[in-house]
UniProtKB/TrEMBL annotation:
InterPro entries: AAA+_ATPase (IPR003593), ABC_transporter-like_ATP-bd (IPR003439), ABC_transporter-like_CS (IPR017871), ABC_transporter_ATP-binding (IPR050763), P-loop_NTPase (IPR027417)
GO molecular function: ATP binding; ATP hydrolysis activity
Keyword annotations of the record: ATP-binding, Nucleotide-binding, Transport
Organism in which the protein naturally occurs: Tengunoibacter tsumagoiensis
Tree of life domain: Bacteria
Protein name: ABC transporter ATP-binding protein
Domain ABC transporter: 8-245
Gene3D superfamilies named among the record's database cross-references: P-loop containing nucleotide triphosphate hydrolases (3.40.50.300)
Length: 327
Protein backbone atom coordinates (compact mmCIF):
# COMPACT_ATOMS: atom_id res chain seq x y z
CA UNK A 1 0.00 0.00 0.00
CA UNK A 2 1.28 3.46 -0.84
CA UNK A 3 2.28 5.38 2.26
CA UNK A 4 -0.02 8.30 2.99
CA UNK A 5 2.13 11.41 3.34
CA UNK A 6 -0.75 13.16 5.04
CA UNK A 7 -1.28 12.54 8.72
CA UNK A 8 -4.80 13.89 8.50
CA UNK A 9 -7.07 13.91 5.46
CA UNK A 10 -10.64 15.11 5.80
CA UNK A 11 -12.62 15.17 2.57
CA UNK A 12 -16.04 16.75 2.09
CA UNK A 13 -16.99 16.33 5.73
CA UNK A 14 -20.53 17.36 6.60
CA UNK A 15 -21.88 17.19 10.15
CA UNK A 16 -25.22 18.42 11.44
CA UNK A 17 -26.67 18.56 14.95
CA UNK A 18 -30.30 18.62 15.95
CA UNK A 19 -30.87 21.43 18.42
CA UNK A 20 -33.48 20.79 21.08
CA UNK A 21 -36.32 21.41 21.82
CA UNK A 22 -37.51 21.91 18.23
CA UNK A 23 -34.90 19.72 16.51
CA UNK A 24 -33.62 22.67 14.49
CA UNK A 25 -30.83 21.47 12.16
CA UNK A 26 -27.42 23.07 12.80
CA UNK A 27 -24.95 22.67 9.94
CA UNK A 28 -21.69 22.56 11.94
CA UNK A 29 -19.39 21.28 9.14
CA UNK A 30 -20.41 21.98 5.57
CA UNK A 31 -18.54 19.90 2.98
CA UNK A 32 -15.26 20.73 4.72
CA UNK A 33 -11.91 19.43 3.38
CA UNK A 34 -8.52 19.64 5.06
CA UNK A 35 -5.11 17.99 4.65
CA UNK A 36 -2.38 18.04 7.30
CA UNK A 37 1.05 16.77 6.23
CA UNK A 38 3.10 14.49 8.44
CA UNK A 39 5.19 16.37 11.00
CA UNK A 40 3.44 19.70 10.37
CA UNK A 41 2.10 22.21 12.89
CA UNK A 42 -1.31 23.12 11.49
CA UNK A 43 -3.49 25.90 12.90
CA UNK A 44 -7.26 25.95 12.64
CA UNK A 45 -8.65 29.45 13.09
CA UNK A 46 -12.19 30.69 13.11
CA UNK A 47 -14.82 32.56 15.09
CA UNK A 48 -16.92 31.03 17.87
CA UNK A 49 -19.35 28.48 16.51
CA UNK A 50 -17.46 28.06 13.20
CA UNK A 51 -17.36 24.27 13.58
CA UNK A 52 -13.75 23.72 14.70
CA UNK A 53 -14.38 21.52 17.74
CA UNK A 54 -16.94 19.51 15.76
CA UNK A 55 -14.25 18.77 13.17
CA UNK A 56 -11.69 17.78 15.83
CA UNK A 57 -14.14 15.37 17.48
CA UNK A 58 -14.73 13.66 14.13
CA UNK A 59 -10.98 13.40 13.44
CA UNK A 60 -10.62 11.68 16.80
CA UNK A 61 -13.43 9.22 16.10
CA UNK A 62 -15.56 10.68 18.91
CA UNK A 63 -18.27 11.90 16.52
CA UNK A 64 -19.34 10.32 13.22
CA UNK A 65 -19.72 12.58 10.16
CA UNK A 66 -23.04 12.58 8.28
CA UNK A 67 -21.02 12.26 5.08
CA UNK A 68 -17.44 12.59 3.86
CA UNK A 69 -14.24 10.67 4.45
CA UNK A 70 -11.65 11.02 7.22
CA UNK A 71 -8.27 9.24 7.16
CA UNK A 72 -5.72 9.48 9.97
CA UNK A 73 -2.33 8.14 8.80
CA UNK A 74 -4.27 6.25 6.16
CA UNK A 75 -6.71 4.71 8.68
CA UNK A 76 -10.42 5.28 8.09
CA UNK A 77 -11.64 6.84 11.35
CA UNK A 78 -15.26 5.78 11.00
CA UNK A 79 -14.32 2.14 10.37
CA UNK A 80 -11.43 1.88 12.86
CA UNK A 81 -11.83 4.51 15.61
CA UNK A 82 -9.87 2.43 18.14
CA UNK A 83 -6.79 2.24 15.89
CA UNK A 84 -6.91 6.01 15.49
CA UNK A 85 -7.21 6.57 19.25
CA UNK A 86 -3.96 4.63 19.75
CA UNK A 87 -1.92 7.07 17.67
CA UNK A 88 -3.61 10.36 18.59
CA UNK A 89 -3.43 12.52 21.69
CA UNK A 90 -6.16 15.05 22.45
CA UNK A 91 -6.20 18.12 24.62
CA UNK A 92 -9.86 19.16 24.93
CA UNK A 93 -11.07 22.73 25.32
CA UNK A 94 -12.15 22.43 28.95
CA UNK A 95 -12.97 18.92 30.12
CA UNK A 96 -10.14 17.15 31.92
CA UNK A 97 -10.51 13.57 33.10
CA UNK A 98 -9.16 12.33 36.46
CA UNK A 99 -9.89 15.52 38.38
CA UNK A 100 -9.67 13.67 41.70
CA UNK A 101 -6.05 12.60 41.12
CA UNK A 102 -2.75 14.37 41.78
CA UNK A 103 -0.89 15.81 38.79
CA UNK A 104 1.86 13.15 38.66
CA UNK A 105 -0.60 10.29 39.08
CA UNK A 106 -2.97 11.62 36.39
CA UNK A 107 -0.03 11.76 33.95
CA UNK A 108 1.29 8.29 34.80
CA UNK A 109 -2.13 6.63 34.64
CA UNK A 110 -2.87 8.32 31.30
CA UNK A 111 0.39 6.82 29.99
CA UNK A 112 -0.52 3.39 31.29
CA UNK A 113 -3.97 3.62 29.76
CA UNK A 114 -2.24 4.32 26.46
CA UNK A 115 -0.33 1.04 26.77
CA UNK A 116 2.92 2.17 28.47
CA UNK A 117 4.59 0.11 31.19
CA UNK A 118 4.48 1.70 34.67
CA UNK A 119 8.24 2.32 34.47
CA UNK A 120 8.05 4.09 31.07
CA UNK A 121 4.99 6.08 32.16
CA UNK A 122 6.82 7.22 35.31
CA UNK A 123 9.86 8.30 33.27
CA UNK A 124 7.69 10.27 30.83
CA UNK A 125 5.73 11.80 33.73
CA UNK A 126 8.96 13.23 35.19
CA UNK A 127 9.89 14.59 31.78
CA UNK A 128 6.46 16.22 31.34
CA UNK A 129 6.53 17.78 34.81
CA UNK A 130 9.89 19.34 34.03
CA UNK A 131 9.02 20.40 30.48
CA UNK A 132 5.77 22.07 31.55
CA UNK A 133 7.21 23.58 34.74
CA UNK A 134 4.74 21.69 36.94
CA UNK A 135 7.22 20.70 39.67
CA UNK A 136 5.58 22.83 42.35
CA UNK A 137 2.19 21.32 41.60
CA UNK A 138 3.10 17.65 41.09
CA UNK A 139 1.24 16.43 44.20
CA UNK A 140 -1.72 18.81 43.86
CA UNK A 141 -5.13 17.41 42.95
CA UNK A 142 -6.35 18.43 39.51
CA UNK A 143 -9.59 19.87 40.87
CA UNK A 144 -7.55 22.28 43.02
CA UNK A 145 -5.56 23.73 40.12
CA UNK A 146 -6.26 27.08 38.46
CA UNK A 147 -7.76 26.96 34.95
CA UNK A 148 -4.38 27.85 33.46
CA UNK A 149 -2.47 25.16 35.36
CA UNK A 150 -5.08 22.64 34.36
CA UNK A 151 -4.46 23.52 30.68
CA UNK A 152 -0.76 22.77 31.15
CA UNK A 153 -1.52 19.41 32.84
CA UNK A 154 -4.01 18.62 30.11
CA UNK A 155 -1.29 19.17 27.47
CA UNK A 156 1.00 16.86 29.45
CA UNK A 157 -1.74 14.20 29.55
CA UNK A 158 -2.26 14.51 25.79
CA UNK A 159 1.47 13.90 25.24
CA UNK A 160 1.66 10.76 27.40
CA UNK A 161 2.30 7.57 25.44
CA UNK A 162 4.11 9.50 22.67
CA UNK A 163 1.21 9.90 20.23
CA UNK A 164 2.11 10.46 16.57
CA UNK A 165 -0.59 13.10 16.14
CA UNK A 166 -1.65 15.65 18.72
CA UNK A 167 -4.95 17.50 18.47
CA UNK A 168 -5.19 20.54 20.71
CA UNK A 169 -8.34 22.62 21.25
CA UNK A 170 -7.26 26.10 22.36
CA UNK A 171 -4.08 25.02 24.17
CA UNK A 172 -3.20 28.50 25.45
CA UNK A 173 -6.65 29.61 26.51
CA UNK A 174 -6.72 31.04 30.07
CA UNK A 175 -2.94 30.93 30.44
CA UNK A 176 -0.78 33.84 31.63
CA UNK A 177 1.71 35.23 29.07
CA UNK A 178 4.72 33.33 30.47
CA UNK A 179 2.95 29.98 30.46
CA UNK A 180 1.46 30.71 27.00
CA UNK A 181 4.94 31.21 25.64
CA UNK A 182 6.07 28.01 27.34
CA UNK A 183 3.24 26.02 25.74
CA UNK A 184 4.06 27.37 22.26
CA UNK A 185 7.75 26.58 22.69
CA UNK A 186 6.94 23.08 24.04
CA UNK A 187 4.82 22.46 20.94
CA UNK A 188 7.67 23.58 18.70
CA UNK A 189 10.28 21.56 20.58
CA UNK A 190 8.23 18.36 20.58
CA UNK A 191 7.43 18.81 16.92
CA UNK A 192 11.13 19.29 16.10
CA UNK A 193 12.50 16.47 18.27
CA UNK A 194 9.76 13.83 17.97
CA UNK A 195 8.26 14.75 14.58
CA UNK A 196 4.74 14.75 16.04
CA UNK A 197 2.04 16.26 13.80
CA UNK A 198 0.05 19.00 15.54
CA UNK A 199 -3.41 20.19 14.64
CA UNK A 200 -4.44 22.99 16.94
CA UNK A 201 -7.36 25.33 17.28
CA UNK A 202 -6.51 28.74 18.66
CA UNK A 203 -7.88 32.24 19.05
CA UNK A 204 -4.37 33.54 19.83
CA UNK A 205 -3.69 34.28 16.18
CA UNK A 206 -0.75 36.62 16.73
CA UNK A 207 1.07 34.03 18.83
CA UNK A 208 0.14 31.13 16.56
CA UNK A 209 1.63 32.97 13.61
CA UNK A 210 5.12 32.41 15.05
CA UNK A 211 4.57 28.65 15.34
CA UNK A 212 2.13 27.24 12.79
CA UNK A 213 3.33 26.20 9.34
CA UNK A 214 -0.06 25.88 7.67
CA UNK A 215 -3.37 27.49 8.51
CA UNK A 216 -7.01 26.98 7.64
CA UNK A 217 -9.57 29.65 8.47
CA UNK A 218 -12.98 28.10 9.08
CA UNK A 219 -16.26 29.98 9.13
CA UNK A 220 -19.84 28.73 8.94
CA UNK A 221 -18.51 25.17 8.82
CA UNK A 222 -16.35 25.71 5.72
CA UNK A 223 -12.68 26.40 5.02
CA UNK A 224 -12.70 29.95 3.66
CA UNK A 225 -8.92 30.36 3.30
CA UNK A 226 -5.87 28.13 3.71
CA UNK A 227 -2.13 28.13 3.16
CA UNK A 228 1.04 29.10 5.00
CA UNK A 229 0.82 32.33 7.04
CA UNK A 230 3.03 34.00 4.40
CA UNK A 231 0.82 32.84 1.52
CA UNK A 232 -2.29 34.05 3.31
CA UNK A 233 -0.75 37.42 4.05
CA UNK A 234 0.27 37.81 0.40
CA UNK A 235 -3.24 36.93 -0.74
CA UNK A 236 -4.99 39.93 0.72
CA UNK A 237 -5.25 42.90 -1.60
CA UNK A 238 -4.50 45.53 1.02
CA UNK A 239 -1.00 44.47 1.73
CA UNK A 240 0.11 47.32 4.03
CA UNK A 241 -1.21 48.69 7.31
CA UNK A 242 -0.66 52.12 8.81
CA UNK A 243 -1.09 52.36 12.58
CA UNK A 244 -1.68 55.84 13.98
CA UNK A 245 -1.73 57.11 17.55
CA UNK A 246 -3.37 60.50 18.14
CA UNK A 247 -2.09 62.93 20.83
CA UNK A 248 -4.31 62.99 23.94
CA UNK A 249 -3.95 66.77 24.36
CA UNK A 250 -5.07 67.38 20.76
CA UNK A 251 -8.17 65.24 21.34
CA UNK A 252 -8.95 67.60 24.25
CA UNK A 253 -8.16 70.73 22.26
CA UNK A 254 -9.63 69.99 18.79
CA UNK A 255 -12.21 67.34 19.67
CA UNK A 256 -12.12 63.77 18.38
CA UNK A 257 -14.69 64.32 15.63
CA UNK A 258 -12.57 66.98 13.85
CA UNK A 259 -9.54 64.68 14.04
CA UNK A 260 -11.48 61.69 12.72
CA UNK A 261 -12.95 63.80 9.88
CA UNK A 262 -9.45 64.86 8.84
CA UNK A 263 -8.27 61.23 8.87
CA UNK A 264 -11.34 60.09 6.94
CA UNK A 265 -10.71 62.74 4.28
CA UNK A 266 -7.40 61.00 3.54
CA UNK A 267 -8.62 57.42 3.70
CA UNK A 268 -10.99 55.24 5.70
CA UNK A 269 -9.56 54.19 9.04
CA UNK A 270 -10.72 51.86 11.75
CA UNK A 271 -10.54 52.68 15.44
CA UNK A 272 -8.66 49.83 17.17
CA UNK A 273 -8.68 51.34 20.68
CA UNK A 274 -9.10 54.90 22.00
CA UNK A 275 -6.80 57.25 20.01
CA UNK A 276 -5.43 54.32 17.92
CA UNK A 277 -6.39 53.96 14.26
CA UNK A 278 -5.45 51.49 11.52
CA UNK A 279 -5.67 51.81 7.78
CA UNK A 280 -5.20 49.05 5.22
CA UNK A 281 -3.88 50.01 1.83
CA UNK A 282 -2.16 48.67 -1.25
CA UNK A 283 1.59 49.34 -1.47
CA UNK A 284 1.08 51.52 -4.54
CA UNK A 285 -1.09 54.01 -2.61
CA UNK A 286 1.14 54.10 0.45
CA UNK A 287 3.39 57.05 -0.51
CA UNK A 288 0.43 59.26 -1.31
CA UNK A 289 -1.32 58.52 2.00
CA UNK A 290 1.84 59.02 4.07
CA UNK A 291 2.38 62.41 2.33
CA UNK A 292 -1.14 63.51 3.25
CA UNK A 293 -0.71 62.35 6.84
CA UNK A 294 2.53 64.30 7.23
CA UNK A 295 1.14 67.46 5.61
CA UNK A 296 -2.33 67.53 7.14
CA UNK A 297 -2.19 65.58 10.39
CA UNK A 298 1.22 66.16 11.96
CA UNK A 299 -0.33 68.57 14.51
CA UNK A 300 -2.29 65.76 16.16
CA UNK A 301 -0.39 62.57 15.30
CA UNK A 302 1.72 61.33 18.18
CA UNK A 303 3.19 58.37 16.33
CA UNK A 304 2.59 56.39 13.18
CA UNK A 305 4.15 53.33 11.63
CA UNK A 306 3.77 51.33 8.46
CA UNK A 307 3.70 47.56 8.89
CA UNK A 308 2.86 44.55 6.76
CA UNK A 309 -0.41 42.95 7.89
CA UNK A 310 -0.26 40.12 10.41
CA UNK A 311 -2.04 36.78 10.24
CA UNK A 312 -4.61 38.33 12.56
CA UNK A 313 -5.35 40.99 9.92
CA UNK A 314 -5.80 38.23 7.33
CA UNK A 315 -8.14 36.43 9.71
CA UNK A 316 -10.24 39.55 10.30
CA UNK A 317 -10.26 40.34 6.60
CA UNK A 318 -11.61 36.89 5.69
CA UNK A 319 -14.07 36.42 8.55
CA UNK A 320 -15.52 39.94 8.16
CA UNK A 321 -16.05 39.28 4.50
CA UNK A 322 -17.79 36.05 5.35
CA UNK A 323 -20.05 37.78 7.90
CA UNK A 324 -21.08 40.37 5.28
CA UNK A 325 -21.81 37.59 2.79
CA UNK A 326 -24.16 35.96 5.31
CA UNK A 327 -26.06 39.07 6.38
N1 LIG B 1 -23.87 18.91 20.82
C1 LIG B 1 -24.36 19.88 20.10
N2 LIG B 1 -25.70 20.00 19.86
C2 LIG B 1 -26.21 20.97 19.08
N3 LIG B 1 -25.47 21.93 18.49
C3 LIG B 1 -24.13 21.89 18.68
C4 LIG B 1 -23.52 20.89 19.50
N4 LIG B 1 -22.17 21.11 19.51
C5 LIG B 1 -21.97 22.20 18.76
N5 LIG B 1 -23.13 22.68 18.26
C6 LIG B 1 -23.32 23.83 17.35
O1 LIG B 1 -22.54 23.57 16.19
C7 LIG B 1 -21.89 24.76 15.72
C8 LIG B 1 -20.38 24.53 15.69
O2 LIG B 1 -19.93 24.38 17.04
P1 LIG B 1 -18.41 24.09 17.41
O3 LIG B 1 -18.33 23.87 18.89
O4 LIG B 1 -17.90 23.01 16.54
O5 LIG B 1 -17.73 25.48 17.01
P2 LIG B 1 -16.27 26.05 17.36
O6 LIG B 1 -15.74 26.62 16.11
O7 LIG B 1 -15.46 24.98 18.01
O8 LIG B 1 -16.61 27.21 18.41
P3 LIG B 1 -15.74 27.83 19.63
O9 LIG B 1 -14.59 28.60 19.01
O10 LIG B 1 -16.71 28.73 20.31
O11 LIG B 1 -15.29 26.69 20.49
C9 LIG B 1 -22.34 25.86 16.66
O12 LIG B 1 -23.46 26.49 16.07
C10 LIG B 1 -22.76 25.12 17.93
O13 LIG B 1 -23.74 25.84 18.63
Amino acid sequence: MERDTFSIRAQNVTKTYKKKPQNEIILANDNLSLNVAQGEIFGLLGPNGAGKTTLLLQLLGLLVPDSGDIQIEGINVVKSPDQVKKITGYMPQSRVAMKNLEVYRALTITGQLRGMSKRDATIQTKEMIERLDLGEHRTQYLDRLSGGMLRAVSLGMALMGHPRILILDEPTNELDPVRRRMIWSTIQQINATDGITFLLVTHNVLEAEQVVEQVAIVDHGRVIASGSPEELKRSIKHDMRIDIVVKAEEVERQGISIIEETLQSISSFVLTKPRHYSLFTEKTALGNIVNHLVLECSSFIDDFRVVPPSLEDVYIHHTNKQIEAHV
